[in-house]
Amino acid sequence: MSARISDATTAQRDPLIWCALLALGFLALVWHRLGVPSKMFFDEIHYVPAARKLLVMQSANPEHPLFAKEVIAASIALFGDQPVAWRLPSALFGTAGLFAFGRAVWWLTRRRFATLAAMGLLITSFAWFIQSRIAMLDMVMAGLAMLALWQAALAFDQPLRRARWHLALAGLLFGLSLGAKWSVAPAAMLPGLAFLALRLRDHGRRGLVEHGTRPIEGMSIWEAGLWLGTLPLAVYWLTYLPTFFYAYNPTDPLSPIAWHRYMLQLQDSVTKLHPYRSIWPDWMVNWRAVWYLYENIDGAQRGVLLIGNPFTMLAGLPALVWCLWAGIWRQRNDALVLAALYLASMALWIVSNKPIQFYYHYLLPGTFLMGCLALALDALWEQGGARRWLSGTALALAGGMFIYFYPILSAAKLHHGRESYVQWMWLRSWR
Known about the structure:
Elements: H1 16-31, H2 44-55, H3 67-79, H4 83-109, H5 112-123, H6 127-131, H7 138-155, H8 160-180, H9 185-203, H10 221-238, H11 256-268, H12 280-284, E1 290-297, E2 300-306, H13 312-329, H14 333-351, H15 363-383, H16 385-409
Helix pairs in contact: 1-4, 1-5, 2-3, 3-4, 4-5, 4-7, 5-15, 7-8, 8-10, 9-10, 9-14, 13-14, 13-15, 14-15, 15-16
């Protein structure tokens, strides 16, 4: 039994069924009008044509990893070249990732309210919903990342034989996630670094050979490195397999470093300023929105505005501070892990010299921020009385914001023509 549940009287029931129901409800919500707009919008104009070219083994969009484009191409091959098929991978990976996020929070915390609150907050965070309805790379990456973190959290809670399989699966999923988009790299590194840190903390340099203690008794650091380091990198490079067989300009399978230098050169070459560009401080305070769509299409004025939930994205910041405090001073490992995932994911963009950045790069940090907020609300809930009422009110506010903004998040029919957007423009920077 986990050390977090040393007393049977404190154990809480696993909300597995509720996690599944929330995920299925989310899928139904995403599926509604998934084919609208009926033409490519925003960055679909890059990734759908790239997927089409992959089907005929032609190079396209080489500045980004390949796996998400391979998945879109497979969907087109199976279901036809149509809007629903383009967006189906994002919808499915978004749903799977939501479920996995809930399961990861459960195995990390063993707290029922925190688990369900985390899923509810992620659903209503705006970005997870929007990215699940567009044919971009982000949701394939993020969904796989959540699945990998679920398996890693599960591995750290199991005996050796089971832990080994879960950790190997986590490594496989991290490799595929990295093969969709590099943004996952910091989060993918944390389970392995946590394993190393715990061994060194307990045994000093002897931890490099010690294998009889936490986080997985019987597993050496070297075996953990195989599952969480070598395997993900091997799987990542295998996602490029089709490029090895291009008729023109194939990738050299024995020159991954040269290929990645070329990819970085392509990414750094995009320097033309974009009206929706932003940087990480803007993301934290929800300052700059991105209009994915705003036009008269499919018989009505419609829009898709990428922005964070105005309540939860700001409420998450003090929750992040609380998680750091609880993790360091109260030794709440669950709080410390979620805060570390947020900070690591943000650090990538703080140090990055990528010339053009957008709010959708906050997808992973924003997800972990919702986990921090869920833990803070759970702490209030556990105290009962008026503080429990505060937790419920916070969740209601998150849901209310989502309902209010839903028309401009989902390409719904807007009833006041081109001026419809005005009611949601609370800040000039959102225009």
